[in-house]
Amino acid sequence: GESVGLHLPTLSVQEGDNSIINCAYSNSASDYFIWYKQESGKGPQFIIDIRSNMDKRQGQRVTVLLNKTVKHLSLQIAATQPGDSAVYFCADQVGYSTLTFGKGTMLLVSP
Amino acid sequence: GAGVSQSPSNKVTEKGKDVELRCDPISGHTALYWYRQSLGQGLEFLIYFQGNSAPDKSGLPSDRFSAERTGGSVSTLTIQRTQQEDSAVYLCASSFFVRVGPTGANVLTFGAGSRLTVL
Lengths: 111, 119
What we know:
Order of helices and strands of chain A: EEEEEEEEEEE
Order of helices and strands of chain B: EEEEEEEEEE
Oligomer: heterodimer
Number of strands of chain A: 11
Strand content of chain A: over 45%
Helix content of chain A: under 10%
Helix content of chain B: under 10%
Number of strands of chain B: 10
Largest sheet of chain B: 6 strands, mixed
Number of helices of chain B: 0
C-alpha cells in the first residue's frame, strides 16, 4: 500500500475522557485496516481491525470507524485510562500485500 | 513459545562491524516479518517470509542487509558493515496467514524488538 499518515502526533487527554485518534490513508485500493498499540519498550499489540466493506467495528472500549469517501480511519477509545497511554499505529493493506504502517500518534492520559 | 521472541534485546556495536539479530516466531505461524523502527518513526517494512515461498525482500534498504529463515521457523537478520544510520529497533512479527474473503486479513504478533545502537 501507499503511505498511511496521522493528523496528530500527540494527543493528551484526561482520565475518563473519550479519545479519538485519526489516520488518513492515500491508497484507494486499500481494503483492510488495522490498529496497533505500542507501549514503551514493547512491540506493537493488535487492537482492532476492519475491512473496507464495513464502516464501523466495535471492540472492548474501542471503536474503529472507516470513511472510504475521504480515506479516513479513526480509533475511538471510551473512558480512557492511564494504561491506554501508548503510541497508536494505523496500517493498511491492499489484497495480500504486507501491511504499511503510519508514523504513529502518542496518547498521553493524565490521571 | 507463547509469543515472538527476539534476541538480543539490546546490541551496541561499532561502526563497520556485522550484527545478527534473531527471531523465534510463534510455533505454527507460517509468515514472518522484519520491520525497522527508528526513533519517533513508524514501522518500516524490511522483509517477509511466507511458508516455502521466496521471501519478499523489497524493503531491505541496502545489500548490507540480509535475512534467512531456517526450517520455516527461526529467522536471523544480518546487517553487515553497520553504519550509524542503522541504529533503530528491529521488530520481528509472525502470523498465521488467514484468508478471509477477497483479502488476506493478517494479524501480526510482534516481538519486543532488538534495539541496535551503532557507535
